[in-house]
Amino acid sequence: MCLFCKIVNKEIPSNIILEDDNFIAFHDINPKAPLHILAIPKVHVDSFNDVSGEMMSNMTKFIQKIAQEVKIEESGYRVITNIGDNGGQEVKHLHFHVLGGARLKWGHFSDADPQGHF
C-alpha cells in the first residue's frame, strides 16, 4: 500500500482541504508555493498514463472545487502532475499539485541541465 493510499485510509494524518466519495485534497508537506495542495483519487492509479478519461473529467471538477474552496479561482493557480522518474514523480499514485497564493515563477527546470537536449 502506497503513502497516498494510507492517507486515503486515514492511516497517516493529513491536513485535508476537500474530500468527496472519489477524491481527497490535502496540503503538501513540502510546499513550493504559499498554497500547495495535492489532489488524488481515492482509488489507486499509478500515474497519469493509467488514468481513464472519466476519472480525469471528475478530477477536473474536483480541482476546480479546490480552487474555489481556497479562493484562488480568480487570482490564478497552476495544476501539475509528474509522470514517471524523468518527470519527477516521487509517489507512484496519481496526484495533482495545485499551486497558488502568489504570482508563480516558471523555475521548475532550475535543477536540470538542458544543454544539448534541444
Could you write a compact summary of the structure shown?
This protein is α+β, with helices and mostly antiparallel strands and 118 residues long.
Characterise this structure.
With 118 residues, the protein is α+β, with helices and mostly antiparallel strands. The protein is 19% helix and 21% strand. It has a five-stranded antiparallel sheet, with helices on one face. Strand 1 and strand 2 (23-27) form a beta hairpin. It is globular. It starts with a helix and ends in an 18-residue tail after the last strand.
Helix content: 10-25%
- Summarize the main sheet: 5 strands, antiparallel
Read across the widest sheet, the strand sequence of neighbours is: 1-2-3-5-4
The computed structural class is: alpha+beta
Strand content: 15-25%
Question: Can you give keywords for this protein?
Answer:
118 residues, alpha+beta, 5-stranded antiparallel sheet, globular
Topology:
Layout: H1 3-8, E1 16-19, E2 23-27, E3 35-41, H2 53-69, E4 77-80, E5 96-100
Antiparallel strand pairs: 1-2, 2-3, 3-5, 4-5
